[in-house]
C-alpha cells in the first residue's frame, strides 16, 4: 500500500510537476514546468495558422485542467480568454480575461500585454465601452515603451474610434501606429477615414445645394 502511494505521487509529479520543480515563468509566477508546457501546448491549439495542431476545443479542455491544478495561473487564464475568443464565446472570454486581470493586480504582475489583448477582444466583439476603458489603460502603461504592444494599442484605439465615428481621435492614434510603428492596418484605416470624410463633404455640398434651391423656389 505504501509503495502504491509513492507510485501515485511520483506519477502526479511527472504529469503536473511538483513545488520543487516550479520556477518563474515569463510573467514571474512560480509554475511547475509540466503545467507551463501544457499551457504552451494549449496556446498552439488555438492558433488558426497551426493547421496540424489547431483544435480550440481541446485547448479549452487542457487549460481548464491546468487551472484546476493552479487556480491563480495568470498565463493559463490569459490563454483561456484568447481560446474562448477563438471559439466565439465572448462572455466566457471576457470572464477569463477579468480573472487574469484580477490576478495581475493582486500579484502585481508586471505585464501590460493582457490589457491590450482584452481590449482588442472587446473591440472585435463590438463591446466598445469596455474596449475603450481597457485600451486607454493600456495606452498609459505602454507610453514611451517603444514596444510592439504600444503600437498595437494605438492601432486598436484608432480602429475603435473609427468604428464609433470619432474620426479626429481615430486619426491621432492611427498616425502614431502607422508613422512610428509601421502598422499596415493603421494605414488602411487612415485611408478609409480619408475616403469617408470626402464622401461626407460631398454629401454636405449636395444637401446645401438642395436647401438653396428650395429657398429660391427653383426646380
Automatic annotation (TrEMBL):
Gene3D superfamilies: Tetratricopeptide repeat domain
Classification via InterPro entries: CellSynth/LPSAsmb/PSIAsmb, TPR-like_helical_dom_sf, TPR_rpt
Signal peptide: 1-22
Keyword terms, alphabetized: Repeat, Signal, TPR repeat
PROSITE patterns (alphabetical): TPR, TPR_REGION
TPR-type repeats, residues: 74-107
Keyword Transferase: no
Name of the protein in its database record: Tetratricopeptide repeat protein
